[in-house]
Structure formats: structure tokens, C-alpha cells
Amino acid sequence: MNPIAQRFSEASGVYDAHASVQQQVARVFSAWIAKGWHSEVKPQTFLDLGCGTGYFTRCLQTEFPDASAMACDWAPDMLNVAKQHTGNIAFFQGNAANFTAPTFTDLIASSFCMQWLEDIPTAVLHHLQHCHRLTVALPCNGSFKEWEKAHQTLGCVSGLHPLPDAGELCSKMMSWHAAGLIKRWRYDIRQFTQHHPDGLAFARHLKAIGAGTPRPGHQPVNLKKLMTLLPKPLNTNYEVLFLELDSISTAN
């Protein structure tokens, strides 16, 4: 199993108790998606890509109660938790980079998943071939400013997984639209904050939700020195990009 998927699988039992920001994003993002369908036919089918424990899936069901729902994740234990709490869903185990649903889908939505992929644009193009509309929410470069600043003060790079650049992704979407690869697109950047007593609590939080896998080649920092540079309490910021892309596909 992929080591990142393994970490998330191991965290499945306590994930929901610690993932307050992910849940807040799921609620805001699902409402944002629904507004995007304003004055249009609502989706009859949707796929939650990287569903985790199913919280975002349930948010989508609330927004689109008449839609046939599917969900996939690469972490088997996450899927097991989702199955216990989310009904009327067809579940699949698969990699968000290249998973293909059994049928063409009106809406593919993904929240806090695609930042883990090595090649986000390639994955986006893959999914656009299998849906009418693709929507993605992911934390971007500029998140965790206090944490990153403290590492820079120590002359080192943090072990956090590198996040995509929102500007670069939007520039890519602009070029795709100009080239006729997508019908239309829109985006929004939202700010979210999570409160922690101190830096150590933040580090423990990342481990609890399965997001503690360090970037390749990371050298551990002097944790005691790092903690002295971080404020108490520590308010960690999340800069989250919302993207919505309409496919040029004419499949039914």
C-alpha cells in the first residue's frame, strides 16, 4: 500500500475527532458547489473522490439528495469507516489520480485530497474525461505560515508535504480554457483557521489525521528550539483553493 494511504488508514478510527478544519471546508465547499449549479439541472450522479470517512460525501448528499452517489478512497480502513456512517453510496477503493467510475458522472467532487497527488493537472485532465463537472478543494502554498516561518528562522525546511501553488493552478486553468480544453471555470480562495494550544499540539494533530508523512529527504528539526519560536496558542492558517471546471465532453 502507498505509505500515505497507509497513514490515513491507520488514522481512520480517530480522524473525525481531529479533522475540524476538513469538516468545515467540506460544509462550505459543498454549498459553494451547489450554488454553481444555480439555474441549471442538478447532478443526477456524483462521485466523491478521496472520500475519507465520508463526511464530505454526506455534505454532497445534503445538497443533492436526489442524486445517485459514489465515493472512492485509496485507504481501505477509511472506506470501512465511511461505510458505517454513510448510506446509499456505492463505494470503491482506488487512487484519486486515475480512478474511473463504472459510469460517466455528472459531478466529480474532491475535498482535501488532490494536494497529495504528484501531478495534479494530469489527474484533473483524466477526471474531466469522465464527468460533466469537476470541483476540487485543496490547501495551497501559503498555508501554515507560522509553522513555516519558524522553520525558516532555524534555517531549515519543514517536513510538511509540499502544497500546490494556487496561482500556478489558476494559470493552468486559464490556458486550458483558452485552448478549448474546458468550457468554463471559476475559482475562489478561502481562509480557514484551526486553533492549537501550541506547536506540539499541531504536530500531534497532523499525525492523528494521517497527514504526518514528512516530505522525501526531510531532516528532523530540533523540536525544542522550534517550539520556542511558535506562539501560544498557535493558530494555523489554511489557504484553500476552490476550483470548478466544466468539461467539454458531450457524453450522456
Strand content: 15-25%
Task: Report Rg.
Answer: 18 Å
Number of DSSP helical runs: 10
By DSSP, the count of extended strands is: 7
Full CATH superfamily name: Vaccinia Virus protein VP39
Uncertain segments: none
CATH architecture: 3-Layer(aba) Sandwich
The tally of domains stands at 1
Mean pLDDT: 93
* Morphology: globular
Bin the helical content. 25-40%
Biggest sheet statistics: 7 strands, mixed
Q: Which secondary-structure class do the elements indicate?
A: alpha/beta
> The CATH topology, please?
Rossmann fold
Largest sheet: spatial strand order? 3-2-1-4-5-7-6
CATH class: Alpha Beta
Order of helices and strands: HHHEHEHEEHEHHEHHE
Summarize the structure.
The chain contains ten helices and seven strands.
